[in-house]
Give the backbone structure.
Amino acid sequence: MTVRRNARPAVKVGAHVRFRGVKWQVAALSGQTVHLVGPDGGGEAVLAGYLFADPGFSVIGADVPQAAPQWGLFETAPAAAREKALAWQRHVREVECGLADGPGSGGVVRPQYDPEQHTLAEREKAKAEELTALGFGRVSRTTPGLPQTGPVGAPGPPHHPRLQPHRAGRRTGRRRRP
């Protein structure tokens, strides 16, 4: 076993692992197959994915990773930003599950946000209309990283010679020297 900084422990030949409630030693690695030797000397070859998927799998002697705090860096944000985020959280939850306090919180689902009656897009549109009527300005959902496209038939990006694919011409003969 090798422990690398800021990484999970690595399984390598000689490492001891717990698999199916038994302590094994890694005897060999071959592609995706891990060859294990048990305490009684018996061996077994297991696919790495199957080994790692075992609920009791662990690398013996490895440090247990520390759990991240539930709120992460939320508490380090300014108070005004935290209040704004929590106010938006209620709106997002209402669109997602129909209840402002989240699933299982009780209460009555408003008809325009009922997931069994409306698609997510319809619920998002209803929330945008509601917030716009309350004076939030223009509210819309965008997906970061995806290009925003205009209406059908709208002009595309401007054409520039440096943005066009380069096509190398073929030479038909030898280059002559002067």
In short: DSSP finds three helices and five strands in the chain. Residues 7 and 65 are 9 Å apart (CA to CA).
